[in-house]
């Protein structure tokens, strides 16, 4: 491999990492605060993608701007669903069967809603930029990918700032680390959970809407990304946005450079393989590894 | 007459019953705390002391009974409403957030919206009481020593300007020298006018710094009185102070 090829691959790994990160962070915050594995995550990504498509086709709104508009819509959807359904689940410090079944059922409902409204044909968002490329010296990058990356990173940074510098963010971290302690100091855990659920669904929708500019989609959209989100969460842990970013980068790196060694069709197998390897050898994720290194140093 | 004595009662708990699932652990606990007093609850492991404090704050659901705080029945209020009314708990085992900084841990003590505006002055008050926390303000709480963690937990409990501060085993697992320090802090906080309800396995200490005490056994109050009376009580001496 030449250096130029390497740099190109590195660039695409980085761009992919941004997408993967924004795609996983919604699941992470929901799991962290509520210990609910959002199996319907893919369904909300799919909804986000179609919403962006509708905004683009009906109102000629730029797809990236549409993605940013999808966020508040899906935030509200999330809060309504929390109020209708999720808050009725028993609170637990471990994922419960009831929550898995609810979220899985929700995914099926969303998927079928998608088929009902939009049919099963593959759709995509095609603009004048879709095929345009940017050249930085020897590195060639798809313009849309770069813009999507930028939007993803901006949203992650915003979330990071919210989590670290606001009262709401502090309450989220508090519930993630010790729910009981949160209750003691007067965190209204139902309210924080509701907003968190809204944020998680909002980020799912946003990720789906951003991905809609890059890939074609149908109501089954998001399924392979769900598995990737699992890998990223296991890798990066649940403590922080930066953990998710690290997990996303590791996965994107492995998948991108994996192409050199395995056929492209096996990419998903690579993600799964990584999940298995991490669960066996590094159950604490990257955080455990850095802690170990620090202890040795 | 009765009005005067009533208004000097800050907290009154009547016939409190609490269960964990099908297992009832509190069987009609009745106690009251006078304004400005240090009141202690003593009793052996599993008697229900922590459960009592958790129920008073509202993080444990109460089956039956009444909790009156500042002349208001609060038994149906969620914990954040009680914290807003300046009731706080320093829980057993400290319960800090290990991956948050000391300062964020403390700030969280002023979480309810009505308390936030005074969070900054209260923070510097806590730093005055515990200068060591100020030195370690940007350190993660999980990296503090046991004594420092206890200070952080107490400091967090002070952030809501408590009128009633509940302390659950504040000396558990600490070196004797630190235990002295912690009890000295408790005494000082009390002198500043904060009413304290304290659970302590260090019965000797607890009875020496409190004015009134309750003995709890298997979910019931079996003995109560001025602390010096309990200290002199034969049964307490034998069962809890290890003298024969
Ligand atoms: N989460 C729980 N689920 C079920 N039972 C519990 C739970 N917490 C406490 N108990 C039971 O309730 C009873 C009272 O416990 P509690 O913690 O209030 O006692 P305690 O007086 O504080 O004891 P210690 O001195 O050991 O702290 C015990 O029998 C205990 O086993
Ligand atoms: Mg206890």
CATH fold description of the domain at 1-83 and 204-244 in chain B:
Rossmann fold
Strand order, biggest sheet of chain A?
Answer: 1-2
Distance between the termini of chain B: 43 Å
Please state the CA-atom Rg of chain B, rounded to the nearest Å: 17 Å
Q: CATH first level of the domain at 1-83 and 204-244 in chain B: which class?
A: Alpha Beta
Evaluate the radius of gyration of chain A. Answer: 19 Å
As laid out across the biggest beta sheet of chain B, the strand order is 6-7-8-3-9-10
Bound molecules: adenosine-5'-triphosphate, magnesium ion
| Most strands sheet of chain B | 6 strands, mixed
Largest inter-chain contact set: A-B, 17 and 27 residues
Distance linking N and C termini of chain A: 34 Å
Proportion of β residues of chain A?
A: under 5%
Describe, in plain words, how this protein is organized in 3D:
The complex is a heterodimer of chains A (297) and B (244). Chain A is mainly α and 297 residues long. Chain A has one domain (3-296): ABC transporter involved in vitamin B12 uptake, BtuC (Orthogonal Bundle), CATH 1.10.3470. Chain A has helices at residues 3-34, 41-59, 63-84, 97-118, 143-165, 167-177, 179-184, 189-212, 223-236, 241-258, 267-281, 285-296, and strands spanning 133-136, 139-142. In chain A, strands 1-2 form a two-stranded antiparallel ribbon. Chain A is globular, with a radius of gyration of 19 Å. With 244 residues, chain B is an alpha/beta fold. Chain B has a domain at 1-83 and 204-244: P-loop containing nucleotide triphosphate hydrolases (Rossmann fold). Chain B contains eleven helices and ten strands. Chain B has helices at residues 2-7, 49-57, 79-84, 102-108, 119-129, 131-135, 146-158, 176-191, 203-209, 227-232, 234-240; strands spanning 9-20, 23-34, 38-42, 64-69, 72-73, 87-90, 164-168, 195-199, 212-217, 220-226. In chain B, the strands form two sheets. Chain B has a six-stranded mixed sheet with strand order 6-7-8-3-9-10, with helices on both faces. Chain B has a four-stranded antiparallel sheet with strand order 2-1-4-5. In chain B, strand 7, helix 8 (176-191) and strand 8 (195-199) form a beta-alpha-beta unit. Chain B is globular. The model of chain B has no long low-confidence stretch (mean pLDDT 92). The structure holds adenosine-5'-triphosphate (ATP) and magnesium ion. The site of magnesium ion has 4 residues of chain B, from helix 2.
